[in-house]
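Q: Membrane protein, please. Structure only.
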Amino acid sequence: MTDAAVPTGPSGPVTRSGVARVGMATAVTAVCGYAVLYLAARDLDPAGFSVFAVFWGAFGLVTGAANGLLQESTREIRLASRQAPGGAVTRPMRLAAVVGLVSAAAVVATALLWSSHVFVQARWLSVLLLAAGLAGFCLHATLLGMLAGAGHWSQYGALMVTDAVIRVLIAGATVLVGWGLVGFLWATVGGALAWLLLLLASPTARLTATLVAHEDTRGFLRGAAHAVAAAGASAILVMGFPVLLQATGGDLGATGGVVILAVTLTRAPLLVPLTAMQGNLIAHFVDQRRHRLRALLAPIALVVGVGAVGVALAAVAGPWLLRVGFGPDYIADGALLAWLTAGAVAIAVLTVTGAATVAAARHRAYSAGWVGATVAAAALLATPLDLETRTVVALLCGPVVGIAVHLAALAKT
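A: Structure for Membrane protein:
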């Protein structure tokens, strides 16, 4: 990863080429994510895959919360590029280092209270890997946000791809040497040092990492706190959903492994690209701040259109793909896969409305929307229905609460 030049001017509008670069990186990232899941599902039995998937979800949960730093950094750097420098100097990367260390310490310090309810095997290794991975990802997410705010989409995409490729390499090595579950735990967190590799290789990334935020330290942390709270709630529904299932359903066993894999596979085609393109979305909505509700129409229409195709494909080809791709132990009917895909569409729409709410600096409404959606989903998961039914109901109905909160807030801006 090298750069021919180091652009230093202010960020421009979100262009099609920028979206295309991130789109290509997203495609590679999605393939790599599928590859890790495929290798884990083929190498482990369904019960073992369930254990891995809970750790994968737990790491996704905490790093998803850390993506609040990405969102706030994108907004702050985008706004700072349009105004004359002055006032207090806030350096997001330094704050991210402090936040990462404090967060890692909190994970370890509180592990006795929660780890036995989440990690049923390799508990303390899981706790330590979770803490170390979170510390690295805080810097990773902040650098991603700064690159998005500054409009450096090539470096943004390179950071995404480096993270994903590291995971696949470790997972592949795990299969070759027979490392088993422990190897896949390491693969989950292995990409958390990708930010450091990019800084070593890219002059543009190093220059971007020195940029200062629009607000002072207190204002930046206040906005980041709201974004982290909302991103944490969103992460429970997106990446941390296996943890939520574990917490509300006890030992998931083989059935849980099948349901978790089905949830992951049906949502990835929509949510992986949307999560990766948060920087593009927030920058777009910042640029369209006078017409935010109107600016929502095209992204939501695209999400719903792609989702409708996905629902049909899941119903028709999903069971066959699941069985052929992952083995005869992974069986789910087409109706379940179609409903899970519809749930993914609902979460995708919530992701888009959330990005618009962040761009409007409506941090309380943003967090309230995601927290409301998560609380509703958790309540629905606690109902006395079978695992498949309550999973579908939670994924379909929970996001509607958050979408309503976001739209109400945007209507008032």
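A: Brief note, in case it's useful. The two ends are 41 Å apart (CA to CA).
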